[in-house]
Write a structure and sequence with these properties.
This protein has 153 residues and is α+β, with helices and mostly antiparallel strands. The chain contains three helices and six strands. The radius of gyration is 20 Å and the shape is globular.
Length: 153
């Protein structure tokens, strides 16, 4: 009888551990997808971007412009949005079922078509969803960094 108890207890503990490993694996998979997207900001590739972006993409810029999958990819391909560098800092990833919430700070240098070279320093929220076993970007919203607090007198 005691032997059966230990077998059952062992199986129960394995079942409890399995979801933790699965969540860690999914977090790592999301991080890999986010990193692929970061690289594609600097070196756009239409086919690779198309595979990483959901057809239903809603992509919000800090200035209020909204992009769809097509306009987002086209703007990066054509240079309308052109990143010379892109770094994602202080990234957090939270997997919730088949979705993932990603937050980070985007710091980079830009050379957008028809504009002077510039810099970006933005807070970013991304929502990724698992589609046919792959993580794809479903939504993204950028917000300008808050102004520094005034110095104390």
């Amino acid at each position: 009888m005691l032997k059966k108890f230990f077998i059952i207890a062992s199986l129960c503990s394995l079942v409890g551990i399995a979801p933790a490993y699965a969540a860690a694996d999914e977090t790592a998979a999301v991080a890999t997808a986010v990193e692929k997207m970061r690289v594609l900001f600097v070196t756009p590739d239409k086919a690779k971007m198309g595979a990483l972006v959901a057809d239903e993409l809603s992509y919000g810029h800090s200035g209020g412009k909204l992009d769809t999958k097509t306009s987002f990819i086209d703007d990066l391909q054509s240079g309308v949005s052109h990143f010379l560098t892109a770094e994602f800092k202080d990234q957090t990833i939270r997997v919730v079922g088949n979705n993932a919430i990603v937050r980070h700070q985007l710091v980079g240098n830009t050379a957008d078509l028809g504009k002077e070279p510039g810099t970006v320093d933005l807070n970013i929220l991304q929502v990724w969803t698992k589609n046919n076993g792959n993580w794809v970007l479903l939504a993204r919203q950028a917000a300008k960094m808050p102004a520094p607090a005034p110095a104390a007198k």
